[in-house]
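User: Urea transporter. Structure?
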Amino acid sequence: MKVLTPADVSAGLPAAAAAAALLGKAGAAALLVLLFLAVTSACSAELIAVSSILTYDVYKAYVNPKATEEQILRVGHAGVAFYALVCGLAGVIFFYIGVSMGWLYTFMGVILGSGVAPIALCITWSKANKWGCIGGSVAGFVAGVIAWLVTTAKLNDNVINVVTSGGDYEMLAGNLASIGVGAIVAVVSSIIWPDNFDWETTRAINVPAPPPEKTEKDSDSDTPKKGSIAGDSYDVKEEADELDPVALAKAFRFATVSSVSLFIILILIIPLPLFFSSHIYGVGGLTGWVSIGIAWTFCSAIAVVIYPLYESRHALIQITTGIYKDIFTKGSGKYVDEPPKASAA
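Assistant: Predicted structure:
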């Protein structure tokens, strides 16, 4: 097996090399399929996210508030095409200037880390000052870039390029400055000039509105007319259940305990002793490490693949049944709300 250079590692080749070494060409082919699925899935999510932002947060909010469904759909498609071109162009530029995946991953902390603390404060602390959080994000970004470039120059005899700027200490300085300055500015400004945000405002955003009363004209056709104002359709009862304060508090406690526990285990208990011991493990240690990784992979697959399928089994059965009926008789698989069962007196 060829020994990977630092450039190969930064390019993301360790997994491919390991798969080829263990399974030969079949392993390399399997990893290629895996990477293709991962890249297309991630890119698809980004395309939809950016398109939704451009469509609903920009176009419908400021350009055309009375946009019809047809206009919304057209702008959404244009947003997908636009961001696809941006992604492709950025990828070509990064490739030709020598920016690797490792460089890009670590640099993301420099440009995005400043917003971590301000965003967290905005959704968890009623005293968070909005201007302080905005200023913290901007100041953290500027401080991160300055620290990154200054550290690069100091450690590399004033030579700043893609290679020298991608070092561990250079990126570490930029990441710490970005996250730290953003957090300090946001927290200090919120303590000095605290806001008093009322969370009822955010809770009211998704409160289900009572359904409009149907007229005789509306009952003639359930299909929306072409050119109607675009809006969201949802089940009122289901939406109300999802916004139940008791259920939300229970979910919040579960998420908090899970997050803190995973942080302590994965960030403190496991990595720190391995780092400070400076011990080089033999075959037995590697076997144990790989076994833990395999077990973790299976647990993750159960949690994110199998359990959601089980949780949605009723909906999947309903959808599959509807599709099966539609294959033989068009329209027979249409979902119809079942009337509520009368309770026994």
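The first helix runs from residue 6 to 10. The CA atoms of residues 276 and 324 lie 60 Å apart.
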